[in-house]
Write the structure tokens for this entry.
Amino acid sequence: MDATEGMRLLRALSADADRDRVADVLANACLKFEVVEWAEVVFLPEDGSDPFPSSVMSSLLETRMPVAVAGNVGSGLPCELLVPLLVREEVLGILKIGSSTLVAIEGDLTNAFENLASYAALRIEKATVDSELRQSQERARLSEWELRLSWDMLPAHAWHTSPDGRLEAVNQQWLSYFGLTEEESMGFGYMQVFHPDDRERVQVLWTGLLTNEVAGGVEARMVRRDGASRTFLLRAVPIRDESGKVIKWYGLNTDVEDLKIAQNRIQESEQRYAATLSSIRDAVISTDDQGRLTFLNPVAEKLTGWTQQEAADKPVEDIFKLIDEAHQLVVDPVSVILGREADLAIGNQYALRSKVGSEVVIDLSGAPIIDSRGEMKGSVLVFRDITQRNETSDALRKSKEDLARMSRLTAIGELAVSVAHEMNQPFMAIVTNAAASMSWLKASPPNIEEAVQAIDWVLRDGHRAGEVLSGILALARNSRPKVEPLSIRGVIEEVLLLTKSELRQKDVLVETAYDSTADAVNGDRIQLQQVLINLLMNGADAMAASADERRVLHVVTSRSNGLIQVSISDNGVGLDPDTADRAFEAFFTTKATGIGMGLSICRSIIEAHGGHIWVTAEKDTGSTFSFTLPPPPSSQERSATPEE
């Protein structure tokens, strides 16, 4: 077979033959040559990898000429010819021809294969272009269909007009809603769908947009095919060519009837909300998400000194001026209140400074306003004047203190009665036996045997008295402490929470400093709380007569000689160094109304825990009460083990 026959096979391909079909015919045409045993077309991979050795590919791509690979008949190595399929210097693929009977393919055959490859490359390029064209046409058809479908599926009336406002096309929603044909709607026939009372207004606005060539919109009522009217928002936008000339107008009519009804209901709800808040006895203010004030009810107006009209849109910190426990102005009250958990018993208490400078004590709580997406859109703060409540609380606290004092005195009286009652019989027996012993000794002659027996009875009754007294003391001390591993910081924080109200009433600020390595202790939680409460309240009372306006209690934890140390310092009047050593004696007190049992009880508790308590003081400079507690056994072992 010659090259002419191979070219005939290629030219016989149908016009719509694709790339793979052309490659198959080219390979079959080459196989018609007697010396050719195999032939195939190898297309270059899209990933850029080489289908042949790099040296061969480099030669093919650089020279754009066939590359022959010589064979050796005796060795069985085949002879191959690689012919590039070229179109304007672009390699579309490689025609691979092989023979095991030849050492090399002659030049005439190489030219024939090169001609066939060139023609096939042109057909492959045409097939590729035709395929891409068909794909582009199909994509264009699908895009047009999708655009029309989207146009008709829009949940609104879509339309476009000529530059002078004549209607040219509408979507299916328009036709279905108004019940008009396209012919009836075209031109200016669409004006008939507007409510008669709105038609002139729409015409004037539409004419203005056309004249000024600017986008715009209007709300108007439109009449449905059944005669019902609903409010629509109409928006029109001009489309311009490259020179800026308006060539079309596109528009959209959106039904906003339900939205307007919802807006009216929201407005009514807001009015009811404002009326409700205006009638309650608590003060209420609200802010937007920028912290600007949006509402004050009458009670809030009275406490702040600002009216709703004066305060509207002002930063909340300009209107709602809070003074904290440290007598400092709160810079961002909304963030502070929303970031704190209110005490359910007393709330968050602050002083509120009014517009004229007067201050009242309030309790305060707040909540964020969260939208449906979980985003904060503002806040509501609720507060009330608690001056009267605090006065009532003070009176109640004083009554409790009086009751507690009476209870302590009663307990002491009961203890004294118990001691007297229980000790009376042993003491009377001792006196009787001692008198009998004296009588036997004074007898003539002395009765030594009877006297010794009476003295034995005296000793017996003395031991009995000691046992009775020990039992009473054990009962008074509530037996042994229930020791367990505790966090001393946790116990301190619990006590600070329990005494928060009383310390605030005494205008006392507490500052804490915790050592993270000095936290775990062994102790009875209730008894340690009793110690801390005693020391904190003693410190607060010591500062009551202090001239220093800043009354501060410092609570510090630290590690000392393997023990956990807690120190409570005040800046009050201090103890006299001459009497400080007696501070822990029972019934010793420097208070006018004290009974001197608190510190004695503290010492008993600390010592029962295996610790030590002491005081350091200077006159008029304050006092520091400190005590130590042992850590849990495991902590002691770790602290005693040297680090490696």
Remarks:
- The longest strand covers residues 229-240.
- The longest helix spans residues 387-442.
- The two ends are 93 Å apart (CA to CA).
